[in-house]
Amino acid sequence: MPFAWEKEFPSLIPGDWTKTSDATRRFNCIAWAAYDDGRWWWPDPFLQYYWPPSLPRENTIECFVRAYETLGYELCDDDSLESGFEKVAIYANSIGLPTHAARQLPDGRWTSKLGNCEDIAHRNLSVLNSQLYGSAVRFLKRPLHRFP
Fold first, then answer.
1. Mean residue pLDDT across the chain
2. Which residues, other chains included, contact 7 with Cβ-Cβ below 8 Å and sequence gap of 6+?
3. pLDDT tens-digit profile of 7-45?
């Protein structure tokens, strides 16, 4: 795995993932999970990045949940594949701060944007469990939509 992030994710082994696009700084994982590949999403207090205007700019799990709720998602119990729904998972580190988001693909795999690096499709959520990302702690779903 000749990628900059390979040491950050020790559980991500060859065969668990596929590169789906080149590295870019234009958007991050939070935006990618929201189908937005044109801007960086983050609730920073200095207004440098996009955040849904109706929400406070707080780096909390609740605030990230609310951001996805503005897109029609609602909390659900787990990351299992459900016919007719798409899901988002929010990761948090060991002190409970949001770190990452991933979106479920129709075949049950997940897609993630790894910081400034590539987008990948990965077998499951646990392959990104790490000191950097922590683990998936909240799951949201909405009826399946078709996006360009």
1. 92
2. none
3. 888 888 888 899 998 888 999 999 999 999 999 999 999
Picking from 93, 82, 84, 81, the residue whose alpha carbon sits closest to that of residue 123 is 81
Token pair recorded at residue 124 = 């499951």
Which pTM does this prediction carry?
Answer: 0.93
Instruction: Using only the alpha carbons of the chain, give its radius of gyration.
Output: 14
Query: CB–CB of 31/119 below 8 Å?
Result: no
